[in-house]
Amino acid sequence: MQKRILITGAAGFLGSHLCDRFVKEGFQVIGMDNLITGSLKNIEHLFKLENFEFYNHDVTTFVHVPGKLDYILHFASPASPIDYLKIPIQTLKVGSLGTHNLLGLAKVKEARILIASTSEVYGDPLVHPQDESYYGNVNTIGPRGVYDEAKRFQESITMAYHRFHGLETRIVRIFNTYGPRMRLNDGRVIPAFIGQALRGEDLTVFGDGLQTRSFCYVDDQVEGIYRLLLSDYSYPVNIGNPDEITIKDFAEEIIKLTGTNQTLVYKELPTDDPLQRQPDIELARKILNWEPKVSREEGMKKTYEYFKSLSQEELTKSEHKDFSKHIIK
Ligand code: UDP
Question: Which pLDDT does position 49 carry in this prediction?
Answer without folding.
Answer: 98
